Amino acid sequence: MSNAIFIENVVKRYGEVTIIPNLSVDIKNGEFFTLLGPSGCGKTTLLRMIAGFNSIEGGEIKFNNQVINNIAAHKRNIGMVFQNYAIFPHLTVRSNIEYGLKLRKMKKNEMKEKVDKILDVVKISQYEDRLPEHLSGGQQQRVALARAIVIHPSVLLMDEPLSNLDAKLRIEMRSAIRDIQKEVGITTVYVTHDQEEALAISDRIAVMNQGIIQQVGQPEEIYSRPTNIFVSTFIGHSNLLQGTIDQKDKSKIAFANGYVFEMQNLVEDVLPGASVIVAIRPEELVEAEDGLKFTVKNKTFLGKYVQYELELDFPALVEGQQIIEYSQDLGHAIRIYNEGENIYLKPNTLKINVFNEKGEQSLIEGVGNAKN
């Protein structure tokens, strides 16, 4: 039986260094929940706290209504899939998968039935008598996954399980993992730093930075309505421009060259004259005669679309940004632009995001500030 996970005000310290200061999040029963963030943000530390491999210096972690802080790792009924597979090299595929069932002293006929079923689920039945050295990386990962779920854990934990695979195999395996998880219905907590991977497989994502959850939401929500600049720039690319709320009409935003556009979804308490950061993804720019003037510095033809690097003729970019990116959908393009040519673009105001001057808070209606 699968469990919901409740993480309440947890703290993790190593000596005097606090890795996770005070973190709370609820993970629903049966969902595929991803912890996403840069290296060193605390996501693997949190996963290991759930697993019982790391101590908890404050707060509580619950499986359903049971506090597990002081329950030993081997008594938590978890399945774990590691980055390096961690399957036994001297055992066949079948023997690797049987291992956890043997520890539970399961009867042979029942064990065979369970292993046969899981071999079929993860699509490696034809390899059951092979040793790991005769398997591809993807096949080995399937063995590790099968071994983790054959014991019917209440929670499945996965730590960067695809990072050792090549790009093509990663795409294949992420689809397989998603399909298998849905078939078996186990609550799954998945750790990755790969944004595309997280968007492709997750029911919900928690974006972490410096031990703090920045935002929790469905992939579409995280991508389209980030709560702050960190989320906006970590997931995908956002062009960041400095703007100002119009003094006379606070539904309008102006750039330094006098270009003004109207927003229909800013929060009511935005202040006239306030400095803001406008975040525009490359696909959220639209060709228009009344748009901003850009100069093409570079272009890359990618089949379905052309990726441009553009330059503005006035200072507007947030510090640290050197160039504007624009994705031109060739299915609707009238022409392709060459280096040195001018192109006029305006933001799709229904799609773009606006943040306060420090980039810490979204100014778009209905966008929450982080948690569940």
Describe the structure.
- The model has no long low-confidence stretch (mean pLDDT 93).
- The protein is elongated and about 75 Å long.
- It has helices at 43-51, 93-103, 108-121, 137-149, 167-184, 195-201, 219-224, 229-234, and strands at 5-14, 17-27, 32-36, 58-63, 66-67, 78-81, 155-159, 187-192, 204-209, 212-217, 239-245, 252-254, 260-262, 275-280, 285-301, 305-312, 324-329, 342-347, 353-356.
- The chain has a six-stranded mixed beta sheet with strand order 6-7-8-3-9-10, with helices on both faces. It has a five-stranded antiparallel beta sheet with strand order 13-12-11-14-19. A four-stranded antiparallel beta sheet has the order 2-1-4-5, with helices on one face.
- Helices cover 23% and strands 33% of the residues.
- It has two domains: 5-224, P-loop containing nucleotide triphosphate hydrolases (Rossmann fold, 3-Layer(aba) Sandwich), CATH 3.40.50.300; 229-356, OB fold (Dihydrolipoamide Acetyltransferase, E2P).
- The protein is α+β, with helices and mostly antiparallel strands.
- The longest helix is centred in the middle third of the chain and has 18 residues, at 167-184.
Using brief descriptors, characterize the structure shown.
372 residues, alpha+beta, Rossmann fold, OB fold (Dihydrolipoamide Acetyltransferase, E2P), six-stranded mixed beta sheet, five-stranded antiparallel beta sheet, 19 strands, elongated
